[in-house]
Amino acid sequence: MDKFVIEGPTPLRGHIAVSGSKNAALPLMAAALLTEKPSVIRNVPRLNDIHTLNNVIRVTGTRVEFDAGAHELRIDASDLHTPEAPYEQVRKMRASFYMLGALLGRCGEAKVSLPGGCAWGPRPVNLHMEGLKALGADIHMENGYVIAKAPGGRLKGGTFRMDPSSVGATVNLVLGAVRASGTTVIENAAMEPDVVAFCDALTGMGAVISGHGTPVITIRGTDHLQGMDFRNAPDRIETGTFMIAAAMHPDSDLTITDTDPGDLGAFTELFRQTGVDMEIGTDTIRVKAPKHIRPVSVITEIYPGFPTDLQAQWATMMTQAYGASEVTDNIYIDRFSYVPELVRLGADVELRGNTAYIKGPNKLQAASVMSTDLRASVSLVMAGMVAEGATEALRVYHLDRGYETLEAKLNAVGARIRRVPQE
Question: Could you please report the per-residue DSSP string of 311-354?
Fold first, then answer.
């Protein structure tokens, strides 16, 4: 197990490239199982979560080749013979549960373990299962596995309303619906850019989908799909993370490349309110940090609202703002494991319920910190980059799940981060 040693404070200056979206790549990988034809997915990030789902998919008999250097993934499910996703693999990552919709759609049956993943929040999969039942699946639990079958070997389609709206459940229902015998309507569907990219890829394979990017998605089932050759979307959460990291040091001037500024939703205007100087291009965003960050309170909402995946980073930035602010998470109400660690670094943050109350600016001092999830981990790295001294961020395997070569990217624009073995 490794840790980061972060020497601060360090401004960020230069150009930093955004990798492909993890949250879009994983559904695309599941979609490749719906066809007997080979598929190619480009701009796939080198992440532990990608390797984990590759191994889950291989259990089915599918051939998977990942050229990490070229960021290119080839999936050939022509010999798929085992519609199962075992516990040993699925326990490592919640997105493995996409196998349920994919295998039901392709084979008419599936045996999928209940998933694992980051250790925060009650994130039940009941919505996924209830939605697939509405499409005609018979589902029951057996020894920690979800056992699902489509009577007659094919889902029939149906109408289901998401309550609450869920990216994962939307993806699973679309996977199950595209090869159903009838039409499916998903109401209150997730509208995230990752869901739109996923539906665009399926449409290119021959699926008949309309309304993606709106609250109502309609899918008319089809008998066959072609393989995909699709370029994955840039990672909007990585984009926002780099923007926030740049804003935290008054001498930063960072240009973020290979991104899609239009995917950030409400985040962009809220970020501008902090006083940053921002120049937005077609696929670039230049961030010049303000001398004094203005306090801006945020409340997480489903897209296009402020994303829950950026709330830990935002709260970390607010420790450097001149005044009081609040960060409230209404999506995952207990996603605040980073708060006591920020306090260890000298931040003035009080957690009450699902809101962090922050008073700034705080002069952070180095300490050893530890977190239990991906976004909390990166927020602590960001705190270390403005703290005085050498901060140790433990358990960086969380970062390897969602940020490609994070320390190399940040070091190239001025950070001082070393990866060393953790005793």
Answer: HHHHHHHHTTBSEEEEEE-SSSTT--TTHHHHHHTT-EEEEETT
DSSP state of 275: T
* Omega cis (within 30) before 361: yes
Say whether 204 sits in a helix, a strand or coil. helix
Q: Which domain holds residue 320?
A: 2-19+235-421
DSSP 354-420: TEEEEEE----B--EEE-SSHHHHHHHHHHHHHSBEEEEEE-THHHHHHSTTHHHHHHTTT-EEEEE
pLDDT 10s digits, 345-362: 999 999 999 999 999 999
Distance in angstroms (rounded) separating the CA atoms of residues 326 and 99: 38
Q: What percent of the chain has pLDDT over 70?
A: 98
The answer to whether 24 and 194 have CB atoms below 8 angstroms apart is: yes
Residue 227 lies in a domain: no
Residue 422: alpha-carbon gap to chain centroid: 26
Q: Using an 8 Å Cβ cutoff, are 96 and 85 in contact?
A: yes
How far is residue 7 CA from its own chain's centroid?
Answer: 28
Spatial CB neighbours of 192, under 8 Å, sequence gap ≥ 6: 23, 167, 303
In this structure, the answer to whether residues 322 and 193 fall within a common structural domain is: no
pTM of the model: 0.95
CA distances for 227 relative to 96, 201, 206, 314, angstroms: 21, 10, 9, 40
Question: Is the pLDDT assigned to residue 123 strictly greater than 80?
Answer: no
Domain C-terminal end among 165, 187, 220:
220
**pLDDT of 67 over the 80 cut:** yes
Residue 254, helix vs strand vs coil = strand
Which residues form the catalytic set? 118
Q: How confident is the model at residue 122 (pLDDT cuts 50, 70, 90)?
A: very low
pLDDT digit string (tens) for 289-343? 999 999 999 999 999 999 999 999 999 999 999 999 999 999 988 899 999 999 9
